[in-house]
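=== Per-residue structure ===
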Amino acid sequence: MGSRAGASLRRVRWAEAGGPGGPPAQAWMAGVLAAFLAAALQAALRFTLGTPLAPEEVAQHLFRWVPLEVFRFFVQRLGELAKWGAFGGSVAFYLMAGALAAPWVRRAGDRTAVLWILAGAAAHVGFLSGLAPWTHAAGVYLLSSALYVCAARTLLPGPPRPVQAGAARGNDADSQDPLVVDAGRRRLLAVAVVAAVGAVTCPLARAVRAVAQAARQGAGEITARIDGLRGAVPWITPNRDFYRVSKNLFDPRVSARDWRLRIDGNVERPLELRHEDLAGLEAQVEPFTTLSCISNPIGGDLIGNARWGGVPLRSLLERARLRPGVVDLRFEAADGYTDSIPLEKALHPETLLAWEMNGERLPPDHGFPARLIVPGIYGMKNVKWITRIEAVNEDYKGYWEVRGWSDTAVTRTLSRIDVPRNGQTVGPGPVYAAGIAFAGDRGISRVEVSFDGGATWREAELEPVPTGLTWVRWLIEWQPAEPGRYTLAVRAYDGRGERQEETSSNPLPEGATGLHRIQVTWRA
């Protein structure tokens, strides 16, 4: 009898104190679930109000602190998975923190619980990395902190009932065990899990909705031949297929009604534009421009061509009247991103403030309500979700430049083989090879293809393009003398006649160099 009473007392003390080495399993689980519920509320509000999740903020800080060489190592090996791996680690950290805090939150009185809520909200706001102003995020984090505290206090077992002297043995004694969770609590846990899952999945389902497909354009005999090849990319990239890269785990969704674009800094007449003002701007244009990501590897697909609708940026800067001494135009985005371009680039007639893409309203993933299009430089400087343009008197280093990436970000000449595919078996008979070449705003003057690993080269046909700001599709016919395995390579010359760099280098921090090579087997 004494041993049973002693064991019961030890269990009571374990439940009250959290155990000699930390909280018991039930307390850990309740704390994790409470933190998950708080994160689920943040996720639901993330896709409606745009306020970032706390784990998202942790990941953003991680990106800021990781050295460039370490960042390069993981990006080269994992690509986009590196970003999601960091987010997964930050989620685990967030849930672990919730588990550790739960026993103390449960034992707190009502007044102390309010202090826990305020402290949690302050901690969340204090960790913001620029994705949202703290005044906007404070209410969201206050609600999620309150949800965590209430959930932890509800889901954790209440104070143990005292063991009555002379209580009946057997089933009656077991019913007084303070560690037994009743059926009502289990039902509450199940309902909480279902609610949390629903709060997360519903916004995510809406966030991944498809966008409309842009019409394919092209004319001429070579265009028909290229379009007829399986695997050849269309000259205009449909909006749904255009590459998307950002620093964010979840990109912002900006309301057209609330959006404002400020143009200020070293100007005589600061401007503020609303979304409805864009359609009324004069000198609207719709040029074709190709964008390429600075992290695009040799032969990679982080490149696309589109028709952008907007106005030359210089027309807005002329209205604002730049003062003498301006060096850069600095851009701020709704996700906290910043970057800059030199004044010379900003005043170039081909640099745009764009709000349309392939004849449609700019999709949210590509910068709605407005973005920057700057021919000749990598996509990292073509800022999306622009909210402010500031004229500054210094060479401003943006989000990626301060981390060691290129400040000028001039697009390097590249070329790619799309048809045939690497490792494919082709033939018998003649075979067409096709692909793309791009040199920023310098245009493409020539493309050469080798079918013997670079020993000899043949010139390919180029599809005519209306502007020198886009990629060029190329085509060449080939039939080897005998069956076997062949190495194909491609190289391009820009509009100045300069051949692309053949020495291989990593994409970071200046953009990749080297030739795209594939191997194919030709059968008779």
Q: What stands out?
A: The CA atoms of residues 73 and 205 lie 32 Å apart. The first strand starts at residue 260 and ends at 265. The chain has a mean pLDDT of 79. The first helix runs from residue 2 to 17.
